[in-house]
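Exercise 3.2. Students should predict the tertiary structure of the chain below and write it as structure tokens, then compare their answer with the key that follows.

Predict this chain's 3D structure.
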Amino acid sequence: MFTLESSRLRIMNEIIVDKDLKLQLVSLDQEFAKEAYEVVDRNRELLQAWLPWAKMTKSGDDELEYFSNSLKRFKEGQCMEMCILHRRKDCRHDEDNKPWEFIGMCGLVNIIRDAETKQEPCAEIGYWLDQAHHGKGIITKCCLKLEEAAFTKLDISKLKIIAHKDNRPSVAVAHRLGFHLTEEKLLKPNPTLHYNAENRIIFSLTEEEWMSRRQ
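Answer key:
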């Protein structure tokens, strides 16, 4: 099994995006899980239209269980789900004030390394953002940093974005990132990420394409 101890995932607990944004591995802190749930709850109507897990998450305990399962899969090298943290503008930086607030998620929701089929390592990027922070390019900036980490530190050969064909904001992110639409079909929908396969479209970006874009 591809495990955390034998991978480079162990160094990816935090990714700095810019001075006001960072990606951080999910936490088992109960207060943090409660904060994350509150953001999910106030965005529920939008999220559940595209993401089945939004209907399943009904409490802070549900969020904590999700984080726990995510960390378990992280240790097994199967994902790297990260929280988007935004610097609070009004924080006094004392013991009673936390300088960062949870505003969404952006990470590798599925990492596939199949030694038997010799398939090149690939990963699916997943993301969502609090509506209050839409329109600021946050997801695009976070995904660009995630791409760099995947291709330069995690030995990923291809990244995918799987989106509902009618989810225009998600499709727009894929285009802005330079991913191209494929003819690939979603054969085994993840019941927490995808309602069905028929309406899903798959975008991809290879390491070679990413490297040529940077030259």
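Discussion points: The longest strand covers residues 100-114. Residues 1-7 have pLDDT under 50 and may be disordered.
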